[in-house]
Amino acid sequence: ISALKVGKKLFVLTKEDYDTEGLVEALNGIIFCLTKMNQYEKVFSLLEDKEVEKYLDKVKITQYRIYSKVKNEEYTQVINDFLNIEKEIVGKIPASILFNVGEAYFRTANFKKSIYYFDQFVKENSFEKKSAEARLRLALSYDLISKNEKLVSEMYKNVIDRSADPYVRYE
After folding, report:
1. Burial, 27: exposed, middle or buried (Cβ in 10 Å; 0-12, 13-18, 19+)?
2. Which of 57, 73, 74, 141 has the most CB atoms at less than 10 Å from its CB?
């Protein structure tokens, strides 16, 4: 809560001083704090603010929206939001979008699509903490669509061997 207060003060101060970089950092900090406190409705309303849209780029706003909607279990809306902005993303799709879209497809039982996005995530972001979770989702997806048992078994072994996260290893 104190970090949120600091973020709000920083936002006001940087806005008064026309410090765009500071303003963006303050907004990122505020949104981070709100998501950690599970205040997703406040995140949504903040992202709808015209002032925020001036300072954060569209892809970053989409990253925050998608993450918040995954946490709110609004998986169909996540997929729709992504499909609406997918063509506007120049270059690589950000890691958080790949992971969360993969999660949305997984949660809606569209395992083939989830495999595509989790596979992309692992290929491009194998160093990320969430890559172990993505590998687990890949193994589960292949398991649920009844792929080759030997392949699935190898994928689960790979998850266990590569994960430092005890919760992922346990699952």
Report:
1. buried
2. 141
